[in-house]
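Hey L., structure's done. Input below.
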Amino acid sequence: MVVEMLPVDRLHLKHVLQTVGALEATVLRSFGPEGGQVLFTRDTGQAMLSRSGTRILKALRLEYPLARMVVECVWKHSSSTGDGSKTFILLLASLLRMIHTKACKEPNVSHTYSSREAAEAATARRFADELLAFALEDLEDLIAVGVAPYGFCVSWEDFTAKSHPPAAHSDTHCVQKLLASFFHTRLGHTHCDFISNLTCEVLRNWTFINDLPSSALHFVNDNFPALHTPVSGFPISCSRLIEGQVIHRDFAVTCPRTEDQPVKAVVFSGYLQPRILSAGDVLKVGCGGQVAEEKSLVEFSAWSERSLQCVIANLQRLGVSVLLSAVKQSAAVLALAAQARMCVVECISKDELALFAKLSVTTPVSDCWTIESQNVSTLTFCRPILLGVHRYVHVAFHDLEKRVTVKPCSLVICGAGEGQTDQCACAFQDAIRMLLVTFQPMQCVLEPGCVISAGGTFEFLLNHALLQHPRCRCVSNGTKMSTPAVSQLLANALLSVPQQIYSHSARHFLQIQTRILSFLPKDSHTFSVLYKQKSSTSLVQACCTSEFPVADCKLSMHCCRKTDVLSKAFMLDLGLESVSCKYQLLLAVLQCVRSLLRVDMVLHTHSALHAQSRRPADVSSEGSEDEAED
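Output:
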């Protein structure tokens, strides 16, 4: 690869601020419960309407590499947690501004322009490194002691509870409120309750017997492309669950049959083809004349057809009446299947075939001559279904007690247009990812399912905890390192989130902050002994000296409820959000800050690849690797 060197851009902190500030101005239009949707138009004239921060950022045409670097960090975080992309940008911009202000006030900054820029960059890097080190050392314990006790835990059993409707302030109602708060920022207030109830219903239907609670979340997340069907042209309220699986293909061969009668199906991952000739088989091939060649072709076609007829006859013997194929079969196979009154579905996606194999507990067959009874699955029915303007294949499975508690189901997601339907589907899958993070224990400190009131409660509480943090902490070598600067910097940056949430009313911001802080003890010494050590004894000591009980080296969230520090009624008014997701968000933002501030310059290159046809045939593999690396 030939690389042409172009001008070099020296990167300063102000350039990073300008880049992140431009991204912040874009996402702020849709931030918070009062935020609106952003409309994008493509060159083709197609419009995209979205409130998802990740979709908005990825839709931007970003030529500056630093901006693409930020979007990549946001995408990696949101793809793992399903949430927080807009808050990510907001916190990132706030931290960078405060680091810039702090770096400019440092006494060792030179007054000459060039050296001043270098000194500011060095100071900013030092703050970024200290912030990340502080977060990795102390942030988890601070959240566990200063934030989590003012929330509560929802259990997995709350998802499987079938009280309709759930009682007010019950755990089941809290689970739906957690989901409704999530969908409120993605789909708006109108449909958030409906989609949250539909999500709970999906998770109840996919709860496996004698398996871990998170298995249902993993299953829905991993198989979501095959589990849902987008339908445009209908309101979101038409979204629903239907029994069984929807295969997103139509019948290639349809035979008249009773739709609701049990049928047997077999899955082919390859082609139905004649048996491969073995050592005793003889097939005459003519030569020396056109008549002989034509006779040989006729003989070969007859032999091939008889061979395929044997395959079809074997399928009939096994009672198979539905053929599901990953590839497009030949016209001869389709004709023979029609004669045998067998239905054929072709070109089924790999994800859908994998899901069918799991639900039917059968293995796809690659060699049609090795089909046995264990490769045949029994279906309750196999029939066409019309969803929107598309016709698909709808199958249902016989109940297997060892598989799931209820029958498998597919999710039909509706929307007024293609963009709205896609937005709803993305929000649904992101909610599943958010729940996965919520129900994962935070390194054995927080119990799974810890939630807290939305509307800035997490930021207000952690701000207070950071300001109450001791002025020094012990590190592994026994020395003490001063932390008020970085803890105060992070504490001030956190307030930018509720400030934007209540940007329409500064008075409302102060009222919520005062109400939340009024629940805190006036003479709190919770953090006076919170020094990070090799083991988790520091957390236990800190909790034992406070009003919060500890059981089995964990904060007992259910015991903390009796303090009634933040009543459920107050929490449900503002909505709920995951504590674990918030913790992961802060770590991701601080890592992004550190990465951005370690970039010194932007090097522009113009490359031209060699044509593959001009490459010599005797080039060694080592040479190819070297060229690829260059």
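The chain has three domains: 2-152+443-602, 157-243+421-438, 245-407. The radius of gyration is 31 Å.

-- N.
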